Amino acid sequence: MKIGFYSLGCKVNQYESDAMAQNAKKHGYSVSDTDDADIIVVNSCTVTSTADSKSRQAVRKFKRLGKTVVLTGCMPQAYPQQASLLAEADIVLGNKNNHKLFDAVDTFFETKNRVFMVEEHKKGDPFISECIASCEGRTRAVVKIQDGCDRFCAYCVIPYARGRVRSKPLDDIKKELLLLADSGYREVVFAGINLSSYGRDINLDLSDAVKAANDTPGIQRVRLGSLEPDHMTDEMIKKLSVCQKLCPQFHISLQSGCDKTLKAMNRHYDSAEYERICRSLRSSFKDCTITTDFMVGFPGETDEDFAQSLGFIRKIGFQKVHVFPYSPREGTRAAKMPGQLDKSVKQQRCKAAIDCCEEIRKSFFESNIGKQVSVLLESKTSCGCMTGYTENYIPVKVKAPQNLCGAVVNCVIVSCDGERCTGELI
User: Fold this and answer.
1) What whole-number distance in Å separates Cα of residue 246 and Cα of residue 207?
2) Contacts of 326 by beta carbon, 8 Å cutoff, 6+ apart
3) pTM
4) Sequence-separated (6 or more) residues with CB below 8 Å from residue 171
5) Cα 418 from Cα 411, distance rounded (Å)
6) pLDDT tens digits, one per residue of 270-296
């Protein structure tokens, strides 16, 4: 029987889909694309209401095509009642039960009855440790090393969808890194729900995991996923800076550059602390770049607050910014706050923020013309070129043989546009 995976959301979901696919092969299933598969696993995201809608649409689409449909991931974990009402899902699992996927599939086919299995996350739950040897279709390997979050930001449902902070044992990380290196991966990306809190529950910290990757033969690059600023202490940055394979690109979640808005969001830092972290990273890592997330239209955000946030973005000079509007989530404090803004206001602020960030990004690209860089080649273009990323996450297009996919090459940046740079092989 053939099984396919349709994954929505973050790198942690990507990883968990890869882990389920690897497990499927052990259970005798053939993993295929969603067109050919008999069973489709929809691994859902619930970070926004739009994400929930995409998950429901995917379930209904695959059911119309006559597939057996499994709904798992964050949406049923956070909103089990809503998931139970989605009749097109033959099997519903919370992300806590992903490792029981094939028990649920067997039960469904044996009984011909719908299977619903969602267990609430509890404090003290262990990290469910998997080790994967490949990430299908990608040249960078994602490694999930952390799960859960204790921050409870006012707008966020993820602590309910993912539970409390828990960390992957270091020996399991080392084992997985060796498997990935043996499979030919040259760059690994560490991922987690609150990645910078890695190790708090097992007397370690993030630098221990990075050092393990730095010491793994065959791995040439280590990259970090999204980080929370309040865990990025000077001591942490100092320990990370001695890991030579660590890419000097850091995605430090901002959300707002206005202190009043940050406080209302229940973020655990202010703009001055955030700026200090950026200065520390840039002084510790050569050619360091900072990327971030930026939310507009949080309840109570005034025009002056938004202008202050844009000013902060210009001050920091981010290499790339993911701009998105605030989306109310059932069960969060922000959903009940006064001062909810109209959709049109959010759209206007999104456009203004995107225009500002694109201007900064283009200026940054132009400042790199003439520099020699190393690029991990990842995919081909319609014009016969290869594209990939530098260590500090500059997207580069270069004329190179397609058999170099997955290789790290040296080139000189010769031009750029608003989307990427163009390089010439050395």
Assistant:
1) 10
2) 155, 295, 296, 297, 298, 299, 301, 334, 341, 346
3) 0.94
4) none
5) 19
6) 999 999 999 999 999 999 999 999 999
